[in-house]
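Q&A FORM
Asked by: J.P.
Topic: structure of Protein-export protein SecB

PROVIDED:
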Amino acid sequence: MTEQANTAGQNDQGPQFSLQRIYVKDLSFEAPKSPEIFRQEWAPSVALDLNTRQRALEGDFSEVVLTLSVTVKNGEEIAFIAEVQQAGIFLIKGLDAASMSHTLGAFCPNILFPYAREALDNLVTRGSFPALMLAPVNFDALYAQELQRQQAPAEA
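REPLIED BY: S.T.
REPLY: Here is the structure written out as tokens.
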């Protein structure tokens, strides 16, 4: 009975995905107009810049880094700039190139986003500003848009 279980486990070489670690790679906050900004009527405009990058590590491990950069203006003045680089190490095996690209470009950032959003909100509230409460992001749609953008010059 034990030999059958071991043999079945050895023959099961399908795709594998495992989150190994989530961590903050970089964190930044700047409030250049404080304390004056706190004395003004608060009517913020928020600009969010979102970026991902990945790199292969040893073996079947990959690092994915999700960067959220937020610039909040009150009128024409910058109230604060906050940035977080939320990273993760993932073990990914047995995927074809297209599936691997999608996993690294959309699936992994989707896992990292709630952690990045929480870190950003925490950072902003420590600066005495209201939490940002960023809306969820559709990384699958962003990934599809990026693929279309890359294919457009090739077709032209």
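FOLLOW-UP: Residues 5-9 have pLDDT under 50 and may be disordered.
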